[in-house]
Amino acid sequence: MKFNSKLSMLMISVSTALFLSACSGDQGENAGKESSGDHSSHANMEHSGSGEIPEGLKEEHNPTYKVGSKAIITEDHMPGMDGAEATIVGAYDTVVYSLSYDPTNGGPRVENHKWVIHEELKDAGDKPLKAGDEAIINTEHMEGMKGAKAVIDTAEETTVYMVDFTPTDGSEKVTNHQWVTESELSPAK
Are 184 and 74 in contact (CB under 8 A)? Predict the structure, then answer.
């Protein structure tokens, strides 16, 4: 390559890196907050999992979506999730929580994180928690989550699913994703 071509490629690479870092940087006062279509707090989320389930989690014996069946995801916890076809890997009967917490690694506060299940909270007891209750998170869906003190935003007794899916944005296949609620799925066509 000629010197000018190398310089041009270097400038394009540097520009791209700066652009990407600006896109993933602090989003101002809304950094770390979740809402439909806002993925800033999922930046460090491990979307694929080992398939291990928390101790005490009970299988749902008659789920709407049977293990091995297909369903369409209707929520967008991360880019490419909404509209993706999922294969059901597991179905469990539990209480699911959205919650807010300050990560143990000093990251920005996470608001309304979806989802943590009852069995992923430390010493949560047998009864469901309710909005406003505090709990210690005992799972690491994202960096800085395990050990964080959380405030429950919502609680719902429902069936949760572990799913495999290929994101609609063409990114890498996600396996054993925890969790998608029954209301976030629709029948595959």
Answer: yes
Query: How is residue 23 written in tokens?
Result: 């896109």
Whole-angstrom distance, CA of residue 159 vs CA of residue 139: 19
- For residue range 60-89, list pLDDT tens digits in order: 999 999 999 999 999 988 889 999 999 999
* SS3 at position 154: strand
Helix H or strand E segment including 186: strand 185-187
**How far, in whole angstroms, is CA 135 from its chain's centroid?**
19
- DSSP letter string, 81-100: -TT-EEEEEEEEEEEEEEEE
DSSP E strands: which ranges in 46-173? Answer: 58-59, 70-73, 85-101, 110-117, 121-122, 134-137, 149-165
3-class SS of residue 30: helix
- Cβ atoms of residues 9 and 2 within 8 Å: no
Please indicate, yes or no, whether the overall pTM of this predicted structure exceeds 0.85.
no
Residue 38 CB contacts under 8 Å (≥ 6 apart), including other chains: 30
Q: Given its phi and psi angles, is residue 89 left (phi above 0), alpha (psi -120 to 50 degrees) or beta?
A: alpha
Per the listing, tokens 């000629």 go with 2
